[in-house]
Amino acid sequence: MSRNAVSLEAKNLTKTYHRGSEEIAAVRDVSLSINKGDFVSFIGPSGSGKTTLVHLLGCLDNPTSGELVLGGRQIFSGNGKQLSERTLTGIRRDVFGYIFQNFYLIPTLTVIENVMLPFTFYRKPGAGKDVMGLLKLLGIDHRRDHLPGRISGGEMQRVAIARSLVNSPEILFADEPTGNLDTKRSAEIVQILKDLSKDSGLTVIMVSHNLELASQADRQFEMRDGGISERL
Amino acid sequence: MRRGMLPFYTAVAVFFLIMRLSSGPAWGAVGCDLNDPARDVKRLFPGSTGFKTVEIELRNLGGTSVAARVEAKLRDKLHGLYETINVPYTVYIIYANKKKIGYIHGVNQKGRYGGISIFLALDLNQRIKTFYIQKMTGQYAGKFRDAKFGSQFVGLTLDDFEQYDVISGKTTGKVSRIRNPAPEAAQEFKYILRGTKKNLLFVNEFLTLSPDLSLKKKEPAK
Amino acid sequence: MITKFQVAYKNLLRKKIRSLLTLIGIALSAWVLVSLLGFNHGFETALDRDIDNMGFQMMLMSKGCPYEAATMMLKGGTGLKYMPESIGDAVRKEPGVEQITPMLMQAVFDPNKGESGGIAAYVGVEPQSFGAMKTFLKFRQGGWFKQADSYEAVMGYEAAELEQREVGDVILIPEKNVEFKVVGILSRTGTQDDGTIFVPLRTLQKIFGKNNKLTTIGIKVSKDADSSRIETKLYELPDVQVVSLAQVKQTIMSLVSTAKVLVLSIAIIAIIIAMVGVINTILMSVHERFQEIGIMKTIGAMPGDIFQLIWIETLLLCATGGVLGIVLALVLSRVTELVIRNVLPYSPKGGLVLIDLNLILFTLGAVSVIGLLSGLYPAWQAGRIRPLEAIRSGVDG
After folding, report:
1. What is the per-residue pLDDT across C68-94, written as a single tens digit (0 to 9) for each?
2. Does residue A1 lie within any of the structural domains?
3. How far is Cα of residue A128 from the mean position of the Cα atoms in its chain?
4. pLDDT exceeds cutoff 90 at C161
5. Any CB–CB contact under 8 A between C334 and chain B?
6. Which of A214, B68, B161, C283 could form a disulfide with C378 if both were Cys (CB 3.0 to 4.6 A apart)?
7. Which subunits sit against B, judged by 3+ Cβ pairs under 8 A?
């Protein structure tokens, strides 16, 4: 797999909302291309449309118009056709792993059960052969039988990362992953994401309002009023 | 959720209420219970305000040895089809304002024409307060069920019956002063005294084994 | 790997009190349902057994109210009108009548029975014809009296126990002061015979001055005979009442059904309310886990998976509640019986509440179906949650 293979390509992505009679374009005509193994960050003030854009890129939402190609597979073809939740889920579970600011671990399940939870619904062929190795890599192997309530915030996010990775996604999607963590833990989590993209060729898309952390990424996009510009 | 459950519990409560209200008198049960405990207890134990019913089965108390001790003191066998260890006994614990003040206990004694149900109301020292024959068949039953006859038993204890021989009817002391109101029915008179002694013996056994009649205590197995 | 079942089960343990309360609701309604259906089944069985144990299918009585006659007959009643013994000959001539047995019931008031006195009842029978009809009667001690005019008695099991009688003892008819020698004690039958004292017919007639009088004639109809035709024919006899046991059964069942309808409607209400409770609980738990469910969808759960997950939770609650309810019903069936006996004007002896495997399976099935139905809406709601909304409802919005 060459480092320069295109992982994600968006063309003229647009998402508009209606508030009363007013039409608001949260994302306006965004085109971008992300290569496999890139660690990309999106920054921008709130209301800039970065979250909406990232949801479109992460197939969590349908665009109003525009095209999206994932790993050579056309997801949105630009005809404005809305995909069903089922179809989107089918795409997502093959391509993406997600982590969020609120870690969303299931409080009744232990660390290892949370990490293995995706297999309850779907197991990508060949995925999840070395879950313990993954826990070790993320430094949470000694917590495997703890309930989420018993571990620290940094550890919880590591569990969430492990959970997002068990099904071997191509793209890891991190929405404000450090929003609930202190500076030291935040730096650690970003370092993990960085290492993952470098060492395993995982594409990482991170949304953050923290400029310092965002600057750790290989490429940085800045959103403003629904438009996008790359910081070079 | 709790809001949702409330009507359900109400429905269950109503169900039981209906069941309660419509329950009439039960068919007479075989055994030696008071026919109408609420009314009978009040009458037999003046001054009582309430009672608790305790069912006792001999086999839970180490059956045969209790029976053996009673037989030894009765100086007669518990015999026939009906004096077996399967017979349930009922002791009514009597209260006055939450304070225990005594017991009522009944036994069935075989009489000439049928079972004689002999109830004794006893104070805490197992001294007879009231003597009552609930049921008896025969020409002289009325005389024996008369309060005048029963009053002769008041104040007697198991000790007074110690010397009473249930077969010959011979005795000394206070028991010998009990007068038979129907001299023609000497055998019935003896049956009644035997039943009374048996009654006192069983209550004494029950209270010795388990003073509060909780009956948790079992005799150690031999 | 963790299964959906485990996920569902662990979630129910999250809010233990809530799950428990819901469980109790279901258990109670399942209990009412099982007891009720068990009663339905048991009562009819017990009634049939009672009727079979009568040994005859038809009774002839002097005219009176049939309801009264029915209850009196089954309770071993008294105070009936009399008919001449000669009527038996007419009955016997009727084609289809296989056998008859004449009976006389009498009762006296015994002031020495309990505080306010009681009734002592006696049934006069012909030892040959009665014994032949009730072949299922077994003796614990002794046997039938041999003569129709001897002063001997046969006692039912409970009557003997109450009076502490054994073969060789004597009994006395109060008021009349006539002694009878006990010659037989019957084994327990579980029918009204247990409480009955049988004496020879002629003797009883003589004591009570009812020579050649009867209260009842028991009629055994041959198997292939048309009993409704015989019934019609017997009605032609003067001043008699024909009580066919099929008719008695019907009367009693209709009395019972009134009580049943009442309880059944309560049971149905209980079930509906329990169902609402389940829907409420599950719906609430779905709302509380809105984000969790959304996140499950980002890690690969299809709407169907979520639907299943929630359905399993509901089913688990209902099935557990159902099992608890059935256990409760089994443990408390004696109590239920006691309650029913007190409610109904007449109930046959023996087990009234019959809970068999079929009934248990049926109830479990019914409760599960109720569970599945209750789970439908919450599960559908949960399945529809979109991950995007779940995430948006989080902190950053």
Report:
1. 544 444 444 445 578 888 888 888 888
2. no
3. 19
4. no
5. no
6. C283
7. C
pLDDT of residue B14: 34
Domain count, chain A: 1
Q: What is this model's ipTM?
A: 0.84
- Quote the pLDDT of residue A126: 82
Give the pLDDT band (50/70/90) at residue B25.
very low
CB proximity C273 to B under 8 Å: yes
* Residues C266, B113: C-beta atoms closer than 8 Å: no
Residue A204 Rama label (left phi>0; alpha psi -120 to 50; beta): beta
pLDDT at C396 over 60: no
Average pLDDT value over all residues in chain C: 82
Sequential DSSP letters for A25-63: EEEEEEEEEEETT-EEEEE--TTSSHHHHHHHHTTSS--
Question: Are A60 and C4 in contact (CB < 8 Å)?
Answer: no
Q: Residue B35 and residue C115: Cβ atoms within 8 Å?
A: yes
Contact between residue C22 and residue C204 where contact means Cβ atoms under 8 Å apart: no
Please indicate if any CB of chain B lies within 8 Å of the CB of C119: no
Min Cα separation C218/chain B (Å): 26
Helix (H, G, I), strand (E, B), or coil: what is residue B17?
Answer: helix
Question: What pLDDT is attached to residue B30?
Answer: 46
Q: Is C391 exposed, middle or buried (0-12, 13-18, 19+ CB in 10 A)?
A: buried
List the single residue in A with minimal CA-CA distance to C4: A120
Q: For C249-296, what is each residue's pLDDT tens digit? A: 777 777 677 767 877 787 788 888 888 888 888 899 898 888 888 888
Task: Pick from A85, A92, A114 the residue to mutate for testing the C interface (most C CBs within 10 Å).
Answer: A85
Tell whether A141 is covered by a domain: yes
Which among C10, C19, C299 is the top mutation candidate for probing chain A, defined by the most A β-carbons within 10 Å of its own β-carbon?
C299
Q: Is A116 on the interface with C (CB under 8 A)?
A: yes
Range of the domain at A132: 6-231
Q: Residue C156, Cα to own-chain centre: how many angstroms? A: 22
pLDDT at B31 (0 to 100): 55
Residue B148 lies inside a defined structural domain of this protein: yes
User: Which partners does chain A have (≥3 C-beta pairs < 8 Å)?
Assistant: C
Asked if residue B2 belongs to a domain, the reply is no
Can you give the residue range of the structural domain that contains B157? 31-209
Residues of C with CB under 8 A from a CB of A: 1-4, 6-7, 10-11, 13-14, 291-292, 294-303, 305, 386-388, 391, 394-396
| Contact call for A and B: 3+ CB–CB distances under 8 Å | no
- Domain of A76, CATH number, reads 3.40.50.300
Residue B5: list chain C partners with CB under 8 A: 21-22, 25, 273, 277
Q: What is the DSSP-derived secondary structure letter of residue C350? A: S
Q: What is the number of alpha carbons within 13 Å of residue C325 lying toward its C-beta? A: 36
Distance CA B85, CA C391 (A): 73
Distance CA A76, CA A201 (A): 25
In 10 A of CB C117, how many CB atoms?
Answer: 13
The minimal CB distance from C396 to the residues A60, A86, A101 is found for: A101
d(CA A11, CA A76): 10
Instruction: Kindly give, in sequence order, each residue whose CB lies less than 8 Å from that of residue A159, ignoring residues fewer than 6 positions away.
Output: A103, A105, A111, A114, A115, A138, A140, A143, A148, A151
